[in-house]
Design a protein that fits this description.
The chain is mainly beta. The chain has three helices and 13 strands. It has two domains: 93 residues, Single Sheet (Histone H3 K4-specific methyltransferase SET7/9 N-terminal domain); 93 residues, TolA/TonB C-terminal domain.
Length: 210
């Protein structure tokens, strides 16, 4: 029995978590993977405006905090100095955002992230699923076929988490679709402003009876 499937990706959501700063001093210079940050900290954590710079001293972000939580605007800049994104947070929860490409055109937020990638690309992912996909015998005997849409979150370390079926022609195909998708770990994670981010995908797996 030859199994076939098609693959598309839909980016639904991503989230960045920053690292906490330790210490009780007024002004903090903290090195991270982007460079360093400057800001004030009170008893509740980061307070007011914090600025992030590259290791060469170029400003790349301005963020507002309240009691250690992102609260207010968070603005990121391209190397050219043009604004890349402007997001609004309330008590660390993302509320809304506006995003621009390097030419200054307004775009969707996904358009400015460094895309996640499976080792070898989508062709390699297709081959992996083809090699590992097993058509459920009960589904075969009942003539069940069609696309099973599996949604999952690609973690910051490039692994599959929280896979679930969001659309299916039959529950007889669900378990196998989730199983094979769960095996496809080892992605290069998505990145935004140099930080790894979680990205949600929806992959349709197509079961075809010949």
């Amino acid at each position: 029995m030859k199994n076939k499937f098609t693959l598309t990706t839909i980016i639904l959501f991503f989230l960045i978590n920053t690292t906490n700063v330790i210490g009780q001093i007024d002004t903090i210079y903290r090195a991270n993977n982007l460079g360093y940050e400057i800001g004030k900290k009170g008893n509740g954590g980061k307070q007011g405006v914090w600025k992030t710079y590259t290791s060469e001293g170029k400003l790349i972000a301005i963020s507002e905090y309240q009691n250690g939580l992102k609260h207010g605007e968070r603005i990121w800049y391209y190397d050219s100095g043009k604004i890349c994104s402007k997001e609004i947070y309330k008590n660390n929860h993302f509320k809304k955002g506006t995003y621009w490409d390097k030419e200054g055109n307004e775009v969707k937020q996904y358009d400015i992230i460094e895309k996640p990638e499976y080792p070898g690309g989508l062709d390699s992912l297709r081959s992996f699923i083809n090699r590992n996909l097993t058509y459920p015998l009960k589904a075969q005997s009942n003539g069940v076929q069609g696309k099973v849409y599996v949604e999952f979150v690609l973690s910051k370390d490039g692994n599959i988490t929280n896979p679930k079926v969001v659309r299916t022609p039959s529950e007889l195909l669900n378990e196998e679709a989730i199983r094979v998708v769960s095996l496809a770990n080892g992605w290069k994670p998505g990145k935004l402003h140099g930080e790894s981010v979680e990205v949600t995908f929806t992959i349709p797996i197509k079961f075809v009876l010949n």
